[in-house]
């Protein structure tokens, strides 16, 4: 898992699974503690995700909310959305809304 930081935005590349949750967790909580802005997790280049990683996102989303912030997931791919629904965690993760084009 590669993480690129662009201010309050974290861009993830690779497989987001139990092996990388500690790394992503540390990056998310560091951003939540360091910035007054909301944190965005860009998952455009995340190929796969497992239940442990989704639980991390759900807990971090709740933590952000409790501390007056938002953690928003941007561009989750089909595999990420499918796993979120299978694990019943889709409702616990805030996904960025994209305006539909006509």
Automatic annotation (TrEMBL):
Entries under Gene3D superfamilies matching the protein: STAS domain
Pfam families: STAS_2
InterPro entries on file: MlaB-like_STAS (IPR058548), STAS_dom (IPR002645), STAS_dom_sf (IPR036513)
Domain STAS: 1-102
PROSITE patterns referenced in this protein's UniProt entry, alphabetically: STAS
Highest rank taxon of the organism: Bacteria
Name of the protein in its database record: Anti-sigma factor antagonist
Organism: Nocardioides zhouii
Source taxonomy: Bacteria, Bacillati, Actinomycetota, Actinomycetes, Propionibacteriales
């Amino acid at each position: 898992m590669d993480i690129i930081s662009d201010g309050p935005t974290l861009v993830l590349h690779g497989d987001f699974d139990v092996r990388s949750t500690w790394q992503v967790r540390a990056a998310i909580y560091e951003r939540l503690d360091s910035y007054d802005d909301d944190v965005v997790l860009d998952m455009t280049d995340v190929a796969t995700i497992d239940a442990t990683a989704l639980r991390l996102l759900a807990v971090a989303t709740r933590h952000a909310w409790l501390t007056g912030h938002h953690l928003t997931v941007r561009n989750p791919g089909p595999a990420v959305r499918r796993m979120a629904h299978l694990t019943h965690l889709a409702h616990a993760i805030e996904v960025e809304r994209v305006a539909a084009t006509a």
